[in-house]
Amino acid sequence: MASLLTRGALGTIMQGEDITGPVVQVLSVKKINTGSGNPDKDRYRVFLSDGQYTVSAAMMTAPVYAKAGEKGLTKFTIMKIERFITSVINNPDGRDSRVLLILDLLVLKDGDEVNEKFGSPVPYTPDAKSIPRPNGSSASAVSNSTASISNGKDSGPPHKIQKLNPTNGSTTNGNISIAGRITHPISIYQSKWVIKARVINKGEIRKWENAKGSGQLFNFDLADESGEIRCTAFRDLVDKYYDMIQVNSILA
């Protein structure tokens, strides 16, 4: 059964190349509750193996996860990635990292039936040795400033990066607030910094009113290889950014 895995596929994906229908194994799943009260807004971080490499920077939305059925993606499940997106994040240390967002999947073998990990995979790192493409796969380069969609067909033009103004070193910028974990620390002694990440969730516009006044806001969640962060836009910035910020787009 170990031969079902597309050995080296995750390494190929994380190097920015395309591959059709890779088969991988689920080693663990973590549910990320967005706190929106809507289960469809929840997300899942999946730890994957292809028998050669493991990747922890894999995400999927609740509707995609639901395609796994009532049991969900149990440990050791064998699944086929039908469609996916990858994007490159430029880190402050000058090294690029890549995020994998799974858009569609097909469970081939439930984890309860498999009940074992295949191979002795090691964590994929950007400086890993050159990885030969799995047999039958096709590849195309992805630039450092774009994202591609893979579905076994021509993915068309890449997504454009939307530019937002960098902040001045605090965790607020005008009427945008940011809350979450940033693996690469932002120091108060830095005069300029930019977060570049993929939009993985966007909430609806909500109205608020209190003793100090009234207004509107919306939340959106960003993710890169190192983690996730939630942003909230208030007042006039709702009108300015709501249509610009779209799920799966890249913001900087």
How would you characterize this protein structure?
The protein is mainly β and 252 residues long. Among the domains are: 9-123, Nucleic acid-binding proteins (OB fold (Dihydrolipoamide Acetyltransferase, E2P)), CATH 2.40.50; 197-251, OB fold (Dihydrolipoamide Acetyltransferase, E2P) (Beta Barrel). It contains 4 helices and 15 strands. The strands form 2 sheets. Strands 8, 9, 10, 11, 12, 13, 14 and 15 form an 8-stranded mixed β-sheet that branches. The chain has a 5-stranded mixed beta barrel with strand order 1-2-3-5-4. A hairpin with a 2-residue loop joins strand 9 and strand 10. The longest helix is centred in the first third of the chain and has 6 residues, at 9-14. It is globular and about 65 Å long. It starts with 8 loop residues before the first helix and ends with a strand. Keywords: DNA-binding, Metal-binding, Zinc, Zinc-finger. Residues 135-151 have a biased composition (Low complexity). This is Replication protein A 70 kDa DNA-binding subunit. InterPro entries: NA-bd_OB-fold (IPR012340), NA-bd_OB_tRNA (IPR004365), Rep_factor-A_N (IPR007199). GO terms for molecular function: DNA binding; zinc ion binding.
